[in-house]
Design the sequence.
């Protein structure tokens, strides 16, 4: 019992990171110093997460909080995401000057909430973690320098988030009323044994709404393009990477409730999957703002992630975990390019990429690797991820779904390759070289190295993801 605190060690380190950045802030340290402290703390949290990867158990009261391979692997990804976001955020010119020192503190608290989210096995604990992870992002989405546009996007984020939160809480109340408990274990047993009442089934479906909102899947996606366009670059980068990974994690745990259930859960997820992929890709084609394009791209990728989740088996769960972990790093690369090109706080458009290979060969290469990863082109990790997802669906006999996903992947190639065309084939409007900071260089090298490394050798990560899926299904 005395060693149970070690199971909570990654979360404790992230909490200490938040406290350290807070102390630096109240001590009057500059935003740059606070960001550097946050980077070192995030790197320490990542190292601790690696050391704690094989740990398992329940550090608090039984049934409330579970530590296993599933939760630990996702926490490793979350701490890596925090580190990369802080490292690549630069001077944060898109953030109001008075709010810049608070950014690392708020991101660390949001990461703590996300880490708790993937380990929560009790409904109220899960809800508190969901809100802890969301409040910080609501704040950071509203501290941009774009005035009315920023305020409008932040208002939409808060309103949609509040609505999703209320629906989720109502679903939790229905589940409690039907089961007489907030612990997931007896709820899952009731659903899997076929004893779920209509109240329980409705409660589960309503609870899932909050997770679909965080994932950005249709029809809970309306906030995505506006928030991505209006929020500061550092906020959008975190929402599009670390927050997305945690959403997949909690949704994966939620789908475990439905194994063996006598409700059309698979059919519902399949419809949402197709709708998200198709709408996301079609809408992205028409975008001229780079951040808005990436926002619609995340809607499409939510659909790809649902391919593995709707299989309701270990193979699909493993493929989803693998894809979510790689997507975190892949999506970070184009957001890094956005942060550097828009270092003055502006929103880069497609024309901002013109002649990028001449102005900054490094950024052009980072964008190329990121775009190829999003499109699923070998030898990137995105190709391996889509392979595993499609294979899991084919094992379930879902050929039509895989065909639709393949068509959507081809459709996405159009706008992804448009980014490459602007960067490599269009002449530069402004031939001034783009200055890339050392931290952005390091972040780009780390991200690109992971994307290509996993693409060439996906075996180790796939083994870990498969083990995490088995731990999830067994739990």
Sequence:
């Amino acid at each position: 019992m005395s060693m149970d605190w070690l199971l909570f060690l990654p979360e404790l380190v992230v909490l200490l990171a938040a406290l350290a950045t807070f102390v630096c802030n109240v001590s009057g340290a500059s935003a740059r110093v606070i960001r550097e402290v946050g980077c070192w703390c995030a790197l320490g949290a990542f190292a601790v997460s690696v050391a704690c990867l094989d740990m398992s158990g329940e550090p608090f009261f039984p049934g409330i909080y579970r530590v296993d391979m599933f939760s630990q692997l996702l926490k490793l990804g979350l701490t890596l995401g925090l580190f990369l976001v802080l490292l690549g955020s630069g001077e944060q010119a898109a953030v109001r000057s008075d709010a810049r020192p608070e950014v690392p503190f708020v991101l660390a608290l949001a990461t703590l909430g996300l880490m708790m989210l993937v380990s929560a096995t009790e409904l109220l604990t899960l809800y508190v973690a969901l809100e802890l992870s969301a409040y910080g992002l609501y704040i950071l989405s509203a501290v941009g320098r774009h005035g009315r546009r920023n305020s409008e996007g932040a208002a939409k984020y808060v309103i949609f988030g509040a609505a999703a939160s209320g629906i989720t809480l109502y679903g939790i109340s229905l589940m409690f009323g039907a089961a007489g408990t907030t612990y997931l274990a007896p709820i899952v047993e009731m659903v899997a044994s076929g004893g779920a009442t209509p109240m329980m089934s409705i409660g589960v479906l309503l609870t899932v709404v909050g997770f679909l909102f965080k994932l950005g899947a249709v029809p809970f996606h309306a906030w995505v393009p506006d928030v991505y366009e209006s929020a500061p670059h550092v906020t959008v980068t975190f929402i599009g990477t670390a927050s997305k990974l945690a959403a997949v994690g909690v949704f994966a745990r939620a789908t475990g409730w439905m194994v063996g259930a006598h409700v059309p859960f698979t059919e519902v997820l399949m419809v949402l999957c197709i709708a998200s992929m198709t709408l996301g890709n079609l809408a992205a084609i028409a975008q001229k703002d780079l951040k808005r394009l990436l926002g619609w791209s995340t809607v499409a990728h939510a659909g790809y992630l649902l391919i593995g989740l709707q299989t309701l088996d270990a193979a699909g769960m493993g493929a989803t975990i693998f894809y979510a972990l790689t997507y975190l790093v892949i999506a970070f690369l184009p957001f890094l390019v956005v942060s550097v090109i828009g270092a003055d706080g502006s929103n880069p458009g497609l024309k901002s990429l013109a002649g990028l290979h001449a102005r900054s060969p490094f950024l052009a290469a980072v964008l190329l690797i990121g775009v190829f990863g999003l499109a699923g082109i070998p030898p990137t990790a995105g190709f391996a991820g889509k392979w595993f997802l499609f294979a899991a669906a084919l094992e379930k006999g879902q050929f039509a779904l895989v065909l639709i996903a393949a068509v959507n992947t081809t459709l996405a190639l159009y706008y992804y390759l448009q980014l490459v065309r602007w960067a490599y084939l269009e002449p530069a409007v402004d031939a001034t070289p783009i200055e890339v900071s050392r931290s952005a260089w390091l972040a780009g090298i780390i991200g690109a190295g992971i994307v290509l490394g996993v693409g060439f050798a996906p075996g180790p990560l796939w083994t870990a993801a498969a083990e995490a899926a088995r731990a999830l299904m067994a739990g």
The two ends are 21 Å apart (CA to CA). DSSP finds 20 helices and no strands in the chain. The chain has a mean pLDDT of 85.
